């Protein structure tokens, strides 16, 4: 699966708008139906709609990580990827952070797409930079 959303975006603001719109849709569905209502209407089409919105948000979160890795530079990229001073203080935290990002961008999880291959190269180079400064 190729991540075509990156090709459609003209800038970071476009991405934020799409992300915000999808989050708003999720909030509206939750306000209208609530958790108990969604459990109550198990076989209703609205539950499917809600679940589809949840899946879209997960996909968009993944897209956000790809976008940050491939299109942004520091400090924006570091902020989006969750790389902060607290994480950099501990090798254990760095390892956790790295594994979390790799689990999202790894080609095995993304149908071996070219974009995921580029993203894994980028995250590996960032990790090498971190390791170099840690020594």
TrEMBL record:
InterPro entries: DnaJ_domain, J_dom_sf
CDD domains on file: DnaJ
Segments passing through the bilayer: none
Domain of life: Bacteria
Domain J: 76-135
SUPFAM superfamilies per UniProt: Chaperone J-domain
Pfam families in UniProt: DnaJ (PF00226)
Name of the protein this chain belongs to: J domain-containing protein
Organism whose genome encodes this protein: Fusobacterium nucleatum CTI-6
């Amino acid at each position: 699966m190729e991540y075509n959303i990156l090709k459609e975006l003209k800038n970071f603001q476009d991405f934020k708008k799409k992300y915000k719109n999808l989050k708003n849709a999720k909030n509206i569905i939750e306000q209208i139906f609530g958790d108990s209502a969604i459990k109550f209407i198990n076989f209703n089409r609205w539950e499917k709609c809600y679940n589809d919105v949840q899946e879209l948000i997960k996909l968009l979160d993944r897209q956000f990580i790809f976008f940050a890795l491939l299109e942004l530079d520091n400090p924006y990229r570091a902020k989006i990827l969750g790389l902060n001073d607290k994480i950099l203080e501990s090798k254990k935290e760095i390892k956790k952070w790295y594994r979390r990002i790799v689990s999202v961008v790894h080609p095995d999880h993304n149908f071996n797409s070219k974009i995921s291959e580029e993203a894994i190269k980028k995250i590996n180079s960032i990790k090498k930079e971190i390791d170099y400064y840690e020594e």
